[in-house]
Amino acid sequence: MKYLIIGAGPSGLTFGNRLLDMGVRDFRIIERESTAGGLCRSEMVDGSYLDIGGGHFLDVRRPKVNEFLFRFMGAEEMASYDRVTKIRTAGMRIDYPYEANIWQLPIDEEVEHLKAIAAAGCNTGAAEPENFLDWIPWKLGEKIAADYMLPYNKKIFSVDLSTLGTYWMNKLPDVSFEDTLRSCLMKKPYGTLPGHAKFYYPKKYGSGELWLRMAERLKEHIDYDVRVSELDMQKRSLNGGDYRADIIINTAPWPCFDRIDGVSEGFLKAVSCLKHSSIVVKYMPEVEDERVNWEYVPAPEIDLHRILYRNTFVKGSKGSWAEINTKRYVPEEGDTAFVSDYAYPLNTIDKPEMTGLILKEAESCGVYGLGRWGEWEHYNSDLVVELAMGLAEKLEK
Predict the structure, then answer these.
(1) What letter does residue 160 receive in the DSSP assignment?
(2) Cα 323 from Cα 340, distance rounded (Å)
(3) Is the pLDDT of residue 229 over 90?
(4) From CA 14, how far away is CA 16, in angstroms rounded?
(5) Which uninterrupted H or E stretch holds 296?
(6) N or C: which end of the chain has fewer CB within 10 A?
């Protein structure tokens, strides 16, 4: 066939649907699970939907993406929300982002934060560190680093933070002493709003419903319950020749294949260097909040790192769900929990070099990495849809 697409998550489903839009029907999607959606799947728990791969929300800032997705789940089926997010710190809860809301802390805490920001390396002209552990206090000051950013990231990733690079922190806004002081004096946030400041979520479903509808249009093109164990890059074949194609689109994690043939030793070494973290999503029936969509919890003594209050965006539901790194999770009798072995790509210092080698050599063989795992980037679902649309249109010019 012309295209083989590995994975029926948001990237693979979008790529397949764009092919259909352009009149291409000579393709197959291979999915190891029995249903579509990847990390964005949902399950019915305690009478309403729970997103088993963690909270996934549709950002409002990509009109082309939204127009495409609303074909499958109309805008009238979506609710729009102004994001309300909190961070637990200093025995209280403050609004996200932390650096724009330290004015909500006790006055002594405000002063300590301002002093630390003024002394931060980025404000004093100190050389920029190359690893994440040293870069955070350099960027934000010792106080924000110690109270929030470092303990939170230790929990979510559960690795030595000095092994992570800093290239992925371009999302983090600049924090200057002047801006923070202005925020404290004005008693309100000052600066750029965070991502997902506004978001869409289905009124009656979990986030997985959208992807199921996209998969329904592709049902004649998807093979479920098929694990791709072998990938031959030169022959562009899967599982010893069970599937062959002119072009392969890989949205699966590169290390999940038992065997990759037709590549250099450097390619295989690069794949072995890719690191990731895993999470458990645990349902908590007793925890509810009527105002906050989700909350970040940096405290080291608490196992979870994020709580999502689903009744604030799934109307009529109850309870909440927690995200916990699998290294921190201790199962308890009666838990309702879902494990995602591949949750977050880790941005190790050598990752750009490794992914650059992998993607370049793969493309030379007619194999394209796509999406969070194919490109090994912490992309949100709206961005992977945009990337998949673009790749389909590029290859079908």
Answers:
(1) -
(2) 10
(3) yes
(4) 5
(5) strand 294-296
(6) C
- Stretch 106-124: mean pLDDT: 94
CATH number at residue 45: 3.50.50.60
**Is the pLDDT at 287 greater than 80, yes or no?**
no
249 and 116 within one domain: no
pLDDT (average), residues 96-120: 93
φ, ψ dihedrals at 6, nearest 5°: -95, 110
Judging by beta carbons within 10 Å of its beta carbon (0-12, 13-18, 19+), is residue 364 exposed, middle or buried?
Answer: exposed
Show the tokens assigned to 94: 């403050």
Average pLDDT over residues 297-320: 90
Q: What is the total count of domains within the chain?
A: 2
Q: What is the pLDDT of residues 84-103, one digit of tens each?
A: 999 998 789 999 989 889 99
pTM of full prediction above 0.85 = yes
Handedness of CA 126, 129, 134, 137 (dihedral sign): positive
Distances (CA, A) of 136 to 139, 141, 159, 161: 5, 7, 15, 10
Within 10 angstroms of residue 341's Cβ, the number of other Cβ atoms is: 11
